[in-house]
Amino acid sequence: MPRSTKASVELANELGFSPSRVQGWTEGGFMPAHDVSHKELLAHCRTLDPLSGTGRDADVATIKMAAQGFHCARLRETLWGLQDFDPNHAISDANELVEVADPMLRAVLQRSAERLGAPPEYPDEPGLAAARAGAAVLAVAQVAVGDPVEPQDFEDLDQLLNEPVARLAEIDPSEVPTDLEGAAALTRRIAEVVIGSAQTWFDEASDNDLVVGVKSARRAVDTLKILGLEFGGDEQEWMTVGQVTPLAERMLTSLTRIYETFYLPYAAGKVIPAGERALVETLTGKPIPSEPVSPARELEVPGG
Question: Of 55, 81, 107, which closes a domain?
Answer without folding.
Answer: 81
